[in-house]
Request: fold
Amino acid sequence: MVPGTEDPVKDVNEAKKIAAEVGYPILIKASAGGGGKGMRVVNNEAELDEQMRTAKSEAFSAFGDDAVFIEKYVAAPRHIEIQLIGDQHDNYAYLFERECSIQRRHQKLIEEAPSSCITPAIRKAMGETAVAVARSCNYFGAGTVEFLVDEKLNFYFLEMNTRLQVEHCVTEMITGIDLVKEQINVAQGGKLSFSQNDLKINGHAIELRVCAEDPLNNFLPDTGKLQMYRIPKGPGIRVDDGFEEGLEVPVFYDSMIAKLVAYAPTRDEAIDRLCRAIDEYTIQGIETTLQFGKWAVQTEPFRTGNFDTKFIDKYYKPEYLQQYDKTTEEIAALLSYHVWDQHKKDQQVVPVSTQKAVSVWKSRRNPE
Reply:
């Protein structure tokens, strides 16, 4: 466990005592939280009062509960989670890990399975720990145990999500297990259709959350009508979406409109397939995270697997995406000119031969 409180913090004075014990920076986290809401990093005591009020206010607004916990903030960790499932007959299995470190506002944008940094020994230890968490409270159904992992691959319990998560798709792709089907089966009292020994990792999967957000404006949510909406297809490409062309993306819900998943035998191939799919994904009418996703997975830190939850803070600047878009526009302009020039040449008038034209009908008619 990361050092911190076991019970909700009552007031700022108590928070100051706890912070002095665990040491700054600390993380204030909503008890009923999720999706990064009600979370605030506090670097020193001078920030504590304001951040405490903000976290409690946001928590109450989002969840109707302003209770918050305090824990030691682990700087630059990886966010890695274990997918598990258990039935009502005491059968449990973990379906390996998902890497979820590329985030903004503590919310995930890109997930992959398996993680590029986890060793088989660490994977086994994390998986068995996740199953122990589920057993400790007689949990059954699909669930996810989330961990923070430091540079030395020490892992710390973060939270458990007692549901299927957005990124369950990548786990399905590498294991071949339909988690939705299994969850329904378990809820009906059935036994798991597989055991831990039946599971193995096959290939690599990467998911990009296609969100109605503007990466050039601090990922500010966007709304509008989907004037054009065309999804990519092909081997290893999966799109789970909830919108279609002509629909309005409103302000009332989460900004995610689709999940784009690429699967391939290797991580590099999965990255390449994802980039190709992004190029083929056409969305007009709103700003989206598509081009950010393509930029992110092609960076050196992502390609080498050397990144953490501070990826966007460390490596991303809006001008990088603008430069990327400018290059794309230049290529498109050159291609358009080439097509136009070729079409123009094809339309040029060819001089009529001085030889008298022969009627095709006449040449084919019966000479008699």
